[in-house]
Prior knowledge:
- The complex is a heterodimer.
- Chain A is mostly helical.
- In chain A, about 85% of the residues lie in helices and about 0% in strands.
- Chain B has helices spanning about 45-55, 95-100, 100-105, 110-120, 140-150, 170-185, 195-200, 235-245; strands at about 5-15, 20-30, 35-40, 60-65, 70, 80, 155-160, 190, 205-210, 215-220.
- Chain A: Its main location: membrane.
Amino acid sequence: MTRRAAERALPVTVVLVVLGAGWHLAALTVANPRLLPTPSRVVEQAWAQRDVLAEHTAATLGVTAAGFAVSVVVAWALALLVDLVPGLGRGVVPVLVASQTIPVVALAPLVVLWFGFGLLPKVLVVTLVTFFPLVVGLVEGLRAAGPGATALLTSMGASRWQQLRWVRLPGALPRFFTALRIAVTYAVVGAVFAEYVGAVRGLGTYMNMQRAAFRTDLVLAAVALCALVSVVLYGLTWALERAVVPWAHPRAVARA
Amino acid sequence: MRDFFEVRDVHVMRSGAHGPLPVLGGVDLRVGRGELVCVVGPSGCGKSTLLGVVAGLLRPARGRVLLAGRDVTGTPAHTAYMPQQDLLFAWHTVLDGVALGLRVQRVGRREARARARDVLAEFGLEAFADARPDELSGGMRQRAALARTVLQGRDVVLLDEPFGALDALTRLDAQRWLAATWRAHRWTGLLVTHDVGEAVTLGDRVLRLSGRPAVVAQEVAVDEPRPRTPGVPDERVVRTVLAGLGVVPDERAPDEREPDERAPGLPVRLP
Lengths: 256, 271
């Protein structure tokens, strides 16, 4: 198992090392740390600023988690509603699609303007950028079991609720988790952007401040932390998926 | 044999591009208690639609479905229906999948599982109770689907192409197994198939539907004693049904033939 993990980690390690080496060479050529610091300088400065960075990262994580939680709840509620009320989907889904064409760049400052610098506007931005893939994944997932399954359950005398419980809900989970993984990566970006527009704490705010101070190294350190947070959250949803729907990955449960 | 359930003059319309299309044009059939009646017909003639009506999934435009004298037209949960696909859900273990019908009937989990375990044991699947459906072979999946069907404890069992997805040899094995199990339980049922040999091997009677709009065009009793040998069905009956379907020459004298004005295809006749 450890050997397999090592084999899996090898390609990504190689890619990171190559990219890092390229960056290092470029930085040496540029020879201006304000323009492009070397990776080692970024790591060094990030370590020196670790307490401040940790505080901002925690703030960003808080916004991400709160916004994402709201998003998941809203997505489930909306998807179940669309599923239960025939015709509602045709009314709601086009509006949802349209809502996704509004650039967050335009919307986020307005949301901050309307709701101030507290937690609420940032949670709203995260919700806005993440709930669409969740709703689409859920609405399609709830239909994934297909008409044959509906016929079978109806022939058994199952009520709508029983059909949902025994077939459609579990059948929706694989798509839900796929959507969850996509959405969670948007969530961090959404949180950082909302902070960028106006906040007291958070990686977005931090980046903004350091950019203004020409501390490119610290901006890049914050960027790296964002990426790290995204990867960790992605990994968590992946682990959650394996735990909740092991049957969606037959190779994981295959026995001798 | 007393009629146990009856389909009377059932008409079904489907919406088509140019208005409603008749699919079933007045189907009449009767099944006695403990009898297995097999329905064959040209593909697309409405065999599955007929089962849908009997299962209460479709309300016919006209006609009735009677079960032990009671009108059950358009109401489900009187029969146990096994659709063409096995529909064993990936999120259930074999045991929970087989118990599904009982759980829908609000039987408690423990009892439903215990009863499912008994059926699995009888069907030779007890070793796979905790397996996932994709770990079963095609034949085993069909057996599990049938276990789920009969465990519902309904008075009538409806099988839609139960072995349609199996390869030829597995299918013969499944037929032998179904015939034996059926005999042991004396279930009452209707089996739809496109395989005339299968119908003649399994059925007490074989009904042939005409092309659309379908009516029962021919009814043949299979007198061959049981146990029968799958793969070598009563040749006379097979010939009769195939002749009715227009795929082999009709060797019967004209007065032996069923009146069937809507036989599909071009009947091939010897010169």
